[in-house]
Amino acid sequence: MTQSTRSNDVPSTGEALERDAAIYGAPPRGDVTDRARSNPPRAEIRDPGTTFTKISLGLGVFSVALGITELVASRQITRALKADGHEGVVKAFGWREIAAGVGLLQSPAHGIRVWNRVTGDGLDLGALALAARHAPRNKAVWGATAFVAGATLLDTIVALGLDRTTGKTAPIHAGKSRAVAAA
Q: Domain check: are 111 and 150 in the same one?
């Protein structure tokens, strides 16, 4: 970018448009007025990575809350699932949820942190499948299974979205697009 000749080092409209074209991957077209018409104002530009990052942050809060619930109410959970005597498993799952949640709160733009949740969801579904074998008519087991399946779907969508928008499973420049990270 050329040195700005305007006061306070504010880039000219042409320089700002060239910078935006480089950041968002748009090839320069025509003169400055053509580019001004083709580039929407900043308020209209939405980075999908930001949306996935926000959802990931919410998943982190949810994981911590769920983990605390599993630690505090493990006896009630096992009783409802007709899995008495397996409180240790529920508590271990609670610690896993807390660890996953803290990881997401520390770095919500890392896809690998969300993939950790997907893996944990798989463990939860496996444990619920065992509970369903022992109590096939237990509505709590089937309700929990449906809930975990929904969470797994959301986790997978967010993990794939973060992978796609950051360009990596564990981005070096969290929250930036591939074009910005490459520049």
A: yes
pLDDT at 63 over 70: yes
Q: Look at residue 177 in the predicted model and tell me its pLDDT.
A: 47
Give the tens place of pLDDT for each residue, 70-89.
999 999 999 999 999 999 99
State the CB neighbour count (10 A cutoff) for residue 67: 22
Domain ranges, residue 36: 7-45
Contacts of residue 19, Cβ cutoff 8 Å, sequence gap at least 6: 1, 11
pTM: 0.66
Regarding whether 90 and 11 lie in a shared domain, the answer is: no
Q: DSSP of 91-131, one letter per residue? A: HHHHHHHHHHHHHHHH-TT-HHHHHHHHHHHHHHHHHHHHH
Residue 178 lies in a domain: no
